[in-house]
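ingest -> validate -> predict -> emit
validate: passed (alphabet ok, no gaps, 329 aa)
predict: started
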Amino acid sequence: MGLTRCAAVRSKALSGFCRRSDPHLLFGRFERPFRLQLCSRAINIIIILLVLSLLGVAFAAASAEPANDRRRRSVAKCDAAQFRVIVDVGHTAEAHGAMSARGVPEYEFNLRLAKLIERDLIEAGFRKTMLLITEGSAAKGLLKRATVANNSRANLFLSIHHDSVPDSLLEDWEYDGRPGHFSDKFPGHSIFVSYQNGSAKLSRLFGTLLGRQLKNRGLTYTRHYAEAMMGNRRRQLVDADVGVYRYDQLVVLRTTRMPAVLLEAGSIISRDEELLLNSADHQALIGAAVTEAVETFCAARLPTAAIGTLGKRLRCRQDRASACSTAAE
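emit:
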């Protein structure tokens, strides 16, 4: 008998379907109860199959959900339009910072990447993002940055830099007919926070979020800041998983009154990494990492008592067997 006829056994109007005789089955006086039992079981099977089918469709739809849709739901948890990020361009045109292996001032790298990050954040809904460019000497520039940031009532301060090494670690080479210096031994990014910042725990939290996003994109941090050879530039590594260092004396981190992080996006004194940092694809990776970290930070801002617990959870390794036991300080 057809499945639709069995399904109709519970309908008064069509109840006769399951009472009709079947030339292939001779059940005598037991035909009706047996046929009703078969119909009931068939209906139950149909219902189960329909439920399983619907669950499968829902699971497939969830798995195929575009990443942008998931990000939009995450951003919806925070008021991105009111969340102000200051993207600080490290150094100034006059005091340009380090020099790359090929003789390009650090300031040019900082300005280019900071502009890209500003654009990405605005496109992600953080319309109050502000690019901070200062002029003049290094000392005046540092004080001005902190003043502008504090007066802006920003929610987050991110200073963009590119790294070098102490002079004692430099090697000589010639590029394009001109003498220069390089060090290929310490490629990678690094993240700095100050425990003297007024929002030190939140600074540490954002540093961890940013480091995690960079790591998720295959980028690695440099470990040389934790080595004795760095002398007075040696820093405490407070998150060995994602490369967050403690640097209390940095003026832009210590004197700002909002969570503040400094990102050394990579080593421009490394010849190979300088080329990588000039790549549009690599810059886009860093911009995407910053944007996703800001989105998560905006959505996850919590009362101070809860920050330690969240920080611990974020630092847990993907391997369940590892010790998700490093508490947030």
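The CA atoms of residues 69 and 75 lie 10 Å apart.
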